[in-house]
Design a protein that fits this description.
Blueprint (H helix, E strand, L loop, with lengths): L8 H5 L8 E2 L6 H12 L4 E5 L8 E7 L4 E7 L5 E5 L14 E3 L2 E3 L6 E3 L4 E3 L18 E7 L2 E5 L8 H5 L2 H4 L9 E10 L3 H7 L6 H4 L20 E5 L2 E7 L8 H9 L28 E8 L3 E5 L3 E11 L2 E10 L5 H22 L2 H8 L6 E2 L6 H14 L9 H9 L2
Antiparallel strand pairs: 1-19, 2-11, 3-4, 3-6, 4-5, 5-10, 7-8, 8-9, 10-11, 12-18, 13-14, 14-15, 15-16, 16-17, 17-18
Helix pairs in contact: 7-8, 10-11
Length: 420
């Protein structure tokens, strides 16, 4: 399928998503945010990290999830099992673990000294004899459903999730089977708060339409290839509530002097020897069109996890709502572990380029939120390459029962019924 001459192809491929405007209300409404909190984030599987963050027995990480009104501690027990718990002491409800990460044999509450092991069992109570019929076995930490896929740790705060993690991920599991996520190491990242609705940030990362304009200084002609000046996607697919888009890169890009030096020792869009992927034997969902101009794919795991595999790195992006107009985000780039001085230089160069590209992405978000609140416009006007936004708001509507809900297809009805 041509990505340059076959205009408006996504509307033909996915007619159930429509072509009309999409309501702005979900991005400014406090009421809609509360629906998302209760019907989406407190029911969906949420990515909270990777197994490499807690490799040893006793390692733990803490994720404060404002949108779920809780804090989660994920720990590797003495048996090597990864478990998640509400980070809350059973005695008086104090927040148990205050550090964001660490290693311990026991987790002790700073309020009254109640102690738990890394499997969540209550093992110590000061002045225990002065309690009334206290059975420690009944007062361990409250668990949350926890599972791992491809090294990514997910939790679900619903006490009785309607589906397992693999059922939730559905076809995404098969699409990315064989991609060597475990061969990469954390290289660098970026995190911080933004004064905007979380969906405004997600929207900025699920289309390539903006790249030739917003990123013209940092990426330049990397985003523009002959016959495709607007970075039209190579492919777009939907897997239940999840979606992917495959994006092109300019293989004829002429690097600057510093860029060329960095690329001598590290990953670039034209170097195959530093990638782990054989372009003739790719996983099913990596460059699904097998296009020679492929640069990277984006997988958006509903509701708030963005995953981008390249042929020499991968990137993650977590979008965490705080309120209807505030959010926290965390971006991480995983790279081939550098071994030489040249490879370290290459990673540092990529770190600077990506930093500047990400800052360009973020530069629009708070300003957008400010003017959306005026009420001057009621709808977003989307073009064909923004079809992933249509899918996103449709799925949100099905889960929340709010605006952008579409129930005119069998798939939509099935998803809505499952999450009722």
């Amino acid at each position: 399928m041509s990505n340059s001459t076959d205009g408006k192809r996504w509307a033909r491929a996915y007619p159930e998503l429509g072509t009309g405007p999409v309501a702005i209300e979900p991005c400014i409404s406090r009421e809609y945010f509360e629906l998302e909190r209760e019907r989406v984030f407190k029911r969906a599987w949420l990515n909270v990290g990777r197994v490499e963050e807690i490799p040893q027995v006793g390692d733990f990480l803490v994720r404060d999830l404002a949108v779920c009104q809780t804090s989660i501690v994920v720990a590797r027990g003495r048996d090597g099992q990864i478990r998640g718990f509400h980070n809350m002491c059973s005695h008086r409800g104090n927040k148990l673990v205050w550090d964001s990460k660490g290693n311990c044999r026991r987790m002790t509450c700073k309020f009254h000294g109640w102690t738990y092991d890394t499997a969540g069992k209550l093992v110590g109570v000061p002045d225990e004899a002065n309690f009334f019929d206290l059975n420690k076995a009944e007062h361990g930490l409250t668990p949350v459903a926890t599972d791992v896929w491809q090294g990514f740790i997910f939790i679900n705060v619903d006490p009785n999730p309607k589906e397992t993690l693999h059922e939730f991920l559905g076809e995404v599991v098969e699409q990315l089977k064989g991609y060597p996520f475990d061969k990469f190491a954390f290289g660098y990242g970026y995190k911080g708060n933004l004064e905007c609705n979380w969906k405004i940030a997600v929207d900025s990362q699920q289309e390539g339409y903006h790249a030739p304009y917003l990123h013209r200084r940092t990426l330049g002609d990397i985003c523009i290839i002959p016959g495709n000046p607007f970075m039209h996607a190579l492919d777009i697919k939907f897997f239940g509530p999840h979606r992917m888009l495959s994006l092109p890169g300019n293989m004829a890009h002429a690097p600057s002097a510093s860029e060329a030096l960095a690329h001598r020792f590290g990953w670039s869009i034209k170097r195959e020897d530093l990638g782990f992927l054989d372009r003739n034997n790719l996983p099913k969902g990596i460059n699904p069109r097998r296009d020679p101009n492929w640069l990277f794919d984006i997988y958006l795991i509903f509701p708030n996890f963005w995953l981008a595999p390249f042929n020499g790195a991968f990137q993650t992006h977590n979008f965490w709502p705080i309120s209807h107009d505030r959010m926290y985000q965390e971006i991480k780039m995983y790279v081939i572990p550098p071994r030489t001085a040249g490879e370290h230089f290459s990673v540092e160069f990529a770190k600077c380029v990506n930093r500047d590209t990400w800052l360009e992405d973020f530069s629009t978000l708070e300003n957008t939120q400010q003017v959306l609140g005026s009420g001057a416009k009621k709808h977003f006007i989307l073009q064909d390459e923004e079809v992933c936004l249509r899918h996103f708001y449709k799925i949100l509507g099905q889960w929340t029962g709010g605006p952008a809900s579409a129930s005119n297809s069998s798939e939509a009805s099935a998803i809505a019924e499952r999450n009722a």
